[in-house]
Amino acid sequence: MSRYSKLLFFITFISxxxxxxxxxxxxxxxxxxxxxxxxxxxxxDFLTENQDLEFKTDSIFNSLxxxxxxxxxxMPAAGKYGKSHEIINGLIKDGLIGGILxxxxxxxxxxxxxxxxxxxxxxxxxxxxxxxxxxxxxLVNRKIMGSTPVxxxxxxxxxxxxxxxTQKISTDxxxxxxxxxxxxxxxxSPNSTVGYRSFGKxxxxxxxxxxxxxxxxxxxxIIATAKHFPGHGLVSGDTHKSLQVINGDLQEIKNxxxxxQNGVLSVMVAHIAIENNLAFSTNGLPATxxxxxxxxxxxDSLNFQGxxxxxxxxxxxxxxxxxxxxxAIAAGCDILLMPADARLAHKELLDAYIKNLDGIQTTIDxxxxxxxxxxxxxxxx
Length: 381
Hints:
Elements lengths: L2 H6 L42 H13 L2 H6 L2 E2 L1 E2 L6 H9 L5 E4 L2 E2 H17 L6 E4 L6 H4 E2 L13 H18 L3 E2 L24 H14 L3 E7 L14 E4 L8 H6 L4 E4 L2 E4 L15 H11 L5 E4 L13 H8 L4 E2 L4 H14 L4 H18 L4
Parallel strand pairs: 1-13, 2-3, 3-5, 4-6, 5-7, 7-8, 8-10, 9-11, 10-12
């Protein structure tokens, strides 16, 4: 086992103090349309021990059918590079998804689409959606055209500027209706695919500047996401095209414990294999499909309690892995991002859930409860 791997098992984190909250009314109606209402919980409560929050989470979970539970795990994309409105609307009407990635469009388009999706979702009695975006400083003005102009991550010059940029991005996202930001990138700079998207131009800035981005984002009631776990910056290729490999030590893993300790609510896992590492070899699988990386390392060793989301499941690094949908969820990922066929992904997961394939039912139940808990803490429920 490498010195980095040994270190991980001895990392401890400071617990966030639990806050007493008044109990929420019990949910009694299963199929009533769900609207955004006042909640006694906030995004700060997600990582706390709170019996009232657990009770409400369990109450909502128990009201859901197997079909509705599995739906929470699936997040297709809408927009220029996503699925058509016809496909998304069909998935909503059939209750097969739990969120949507807004992928390349304008501020006005996304605002209009989210309102329409919310109306349709509510009328069909589904749980409210998590709406996500790749609103990184380096990508946001291209991914969301018409958004407030900001500098790219590798052009930012101070932590004060990080806060200003993050506030501008978060204000835009709140106005549009997006509550989940797949940012910041915490990779090192050498890889051309991700390097300009991180604060890694000066390595000493990665942790404090990423933490500032996370804290400002989450103060705006938006989930922040550290990515691409366990590290994309020191591999040579592009996971959009093919599976990339970390050979030996996980050198970038050190970027994650401080961010986890400081309360980042989401981590995105990359389609990267690990080899020549006794503790964390993935045996040729991408990290997204490896229990050693998702469950044993991220969830257990690093004690990450937030949402774990895959990188896009239609990317070359995972697309050709047999049964990748089942493997990613069984490995411990909570959200499948952009499965090639969301309807098929739901069917495969539902079949596995009903049959309790290799004990996957417990894993799925835990993921669904985390997602419900997050939706409560965002005041969506």
